[in-house]
Amino acid sequence: MMSPRRQSRIAAVQILYQIQLTTTPVSDVIDQFWRSQGTSGELRPFTTQLVEGTAAHLTVIDDLLQNASQNWRLHRMPVVDLSILRCATYEILYVNDIDPATSINEAVEIAKSYSTPDSPKFINGVLDNIRKKSVAPIPEHVTLEKNQLSL
Predict the structure, then answer these.
(1) Distances 129 to 6, 40, 101, 120, 133 between C-alpha atoms, Å
(2) What pLDDT shows up at residue 135?
């Protein structure tokens, strides 16, 4: 059985896909989705967080995606892939209780089910580039002496 978190991610991708294809306000698309799907109430909080968060940070997310996807313009990407990438990028950047590797893996698994055979590899590469760029490196001038950290 599929985990509730994966079900929420899939629902978020479906909603983001619908948003991309319409001019309907985000909140209306979310409401329409829940009415039409009749899905479990337990999925709604995480799904809504992903959709609203992605929409709220779309400019930053799209800039990062554009920079991380070499030789691809966002408008040329399949809408399904773009929706998966946007949702996972939001999760990597703004959902602190989920490891970025988990977010990437989930996006790849969703792409395997909902997109083209080439999409999982492409999505993995783009998201890994974003993950690498979003991790703040420790400044070189900072050094830790042995036993300096308390466990």
Answers:
(1) 22, 34, 12, 14, 6
(2) 62
